[in-house]
Amino acid sequence: MQRKVERNLWIITGVTSFPFVILALANPDKVVFPHLYILMAVAGIFNGLFVPFFLMRGEGNWLRYTLAIGGNLLISYFWINFTGGVESIFYPAFYLLPIVAATLYADFLGAMATALVAGGLSIYAKGQATGWKVTMWQDTRMLAQIVLFFLVAAIVGYLLKVQREQFRRNQKMNEELEIAYSQLMASHDQLQSYTNIIEKMNREMEQLAITDELTGLYNYRYFQMTLDKELKRNRHSSLTLIMLDIDDFKTYNDRYGHMMGDKMLAEVARTIKSLVREIDTVVRYGGEEFAVLLPATRSEEGFQVAEKLRQAIAALRVPTADGLQTSITVSAGISCFPVDSLNKSELISHADLALYRAKEDGRNLSRIYEKLQ
Fold first, then answer.
1. How far apart are CA 336 and CA 243, in angstroms?
2. Which keywords does the record carry (predicted)?
3. Which residues are catalytic?
């Protein structure tokens, strides 16, 4: 980007110097033809093509700047010679163009060196014209011009030097800020990644805290929390609780082993889960006991659900490693808020009592607490 700006600025400078051509042609008696035309063509090619599109291509260095500034010093020298020499209206002020160019494109020392060369060329031209009879100290006009060369080179060069240093500092600061910002964003992204991982782990831990590992159902802790919420939510409706307990599960474990017992528990859990609504809550209450919460459901409807579950579980067949088909049955107790239970403890205890009655009556049965009264 910096090279492109310099290239465009160089071309603009060349275009704005076109009025000097008009000034030169305004006094044709002193102009050397066709030398001036040839010099104009050379200057146009040099400053319009060679310098901007060759010397300023890529990174600049002292050799390229020397060629560009030195070429324009020679152009200025011959321009003055072809427009009247020391009598030219351009003598020696025309050397200010390469001096200004040096302050723009070279460094401070380069600008001072250009002023020194311009002063030397001015003295040389004057000496050639006068046969070296007039010294620089006798020609105050020329002396003033040479002093002006150095003043322009010094003042403008110094100001541009300060500006360039400030620009480099700002550029370096911007680069450091960009690096710091990139590092900050990377740290932020990394922190966000860690935060997401921690949040995910927390969710997983929370899920594990309320989930039974064997069956994948919710556990007793979740049952207690959910029951409180459902009682509040259904205070103007009804909430039915079904307690299910596998019949003679100890005998089943003793006969087939605990691994088969665990497998049977998982199959019973899967069966219960598949036969209830999405709004219903199924939990492993403990051991071989399960609980099902049925929102907006009355006792009779709960009894029908319990019977459906009981029959499906009775029809369940789980094969052993030897290919033997095993089965179990469950007993169910049903209580309903607020029909037969007015609070949480009554709802649970009444469902347990109904379950106990189902066991007493022969197992593989469903009983409603309300009908025990």
1. 12
2. Membrane, Transmembrane, Transmembrane helix
3. 288
* Residue 98: exposure state from Cβ atoms within 10 A (0-12, 13-18, ≥19): buried
Domain ranges, ordered by start, for the chain: 2-177, 220-372
In 3D space, the residue among 102, 105, 109 whose CA is nearest the CA of residue 76 turns out to be 102
Positions of the chain with pLDDT lower than 70, given as ranges: 1-28, 56, 58-60, 133-139, 373
User: Nearest to residue 307, comparing CAs of 352, 368, 362?
Assistant: 368
Enter the CATH code of domain 220-372: 3.30.70.270
Phi, then psi, of 282 in degrees rounded to 5: -115, 130
In angstroms, the first-to-last Cα distance of the chain is 94
Residue 56: which residues within 8 A CB-CB, separation 6 or more?
A: 3, 6, 7, 10, 64, 68
281-286/239-246 β-pairing = unpaired
In this prediction, residue 18 carries a pLDDT of: 58
Q: If you search the block for the tokens 């369940």, which residue do you land on?
A: 316
**Which backbone phi and psi does 210 adopt, to 5 degrees?**
-115, 15
